[in-house]
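During the no-cost extension, the postdoctoral fellow (Dr. R.K.) reprocessed legacy sequence entries with the updated structure-token encoder. One reprocessed record is reproduced below for audit purposes.
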Amino acid sequence: MRRTPTRSSAPTAVERVRSILAAAHSMTVVCDGRYAEVRRLDGAGAMGHFHLHAPFEGGGVGARTPVRLELTDIAPTPVRDRLRARVTLTGLLAEPYDPDSAESTCMEFGQGMLEDASGRSYVTLHELEATELDPLATSEAGMLTHLVDEHAELVPLLLRLVRPFPDGGELRALPDGGVLRALPVGVDRYGLTLRLEYTRTHRDVRLPFKTPVRHVDHVGPQIHALLSEARRISHTGRLLT
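Re-encoded structure tokens follow.
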């Protein structure tokens, strides 16, 4: 089990789960041996379709049906390997899931799991309820596609903020170190993530904001600050170390 440390340069596992649940456009519901693809989340995310609550205590509760919610987090930009993460929530329902119901389904929460390239992390209902939604969660896709479609020339400039890294025994400076393509793959309250694609592999690098974004309108100045720093480095002819 991977434990995500508390830090201010990247979202924690529970923050990522919270964002994925809010921004999801679809999910798979597995209940009573049946799979149902839910695509009508109506902008309210998965939790607009399912209401999570703590396990019942005491007696008086009849037989309940196990349920599993499966969600995938897909990068909105055309990067290599667009699957960023998977989220699985397990729990119990008072009765079998009705895919045709227009009402929110009440689900007794069991466990939440995030799977990504780093491994697995588990989250509790208490953690989810105590976590503030990232203000960029539901706007991320539009922001990244706008950056790629309308300001693609800025992405190579941001590469000046990427630290050198050892490869093949040599410390090679980016972007002239074998990068075939670089695209933004994520943005959250803590920073922007670029995906650097090479001939046979790729890696993600984080460009942290100076301070976490508190409102969606504040992300523009933070990105401009990154660009200003990149331009300053370009003029001095050095990379960050």
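The first strand starts at residue 27 and ends at 31. Residues 1-7, 165-176 have pLDDT under 50 and may be disordered. The remaining legacy entries will be reprocessed before the final report is submitted.
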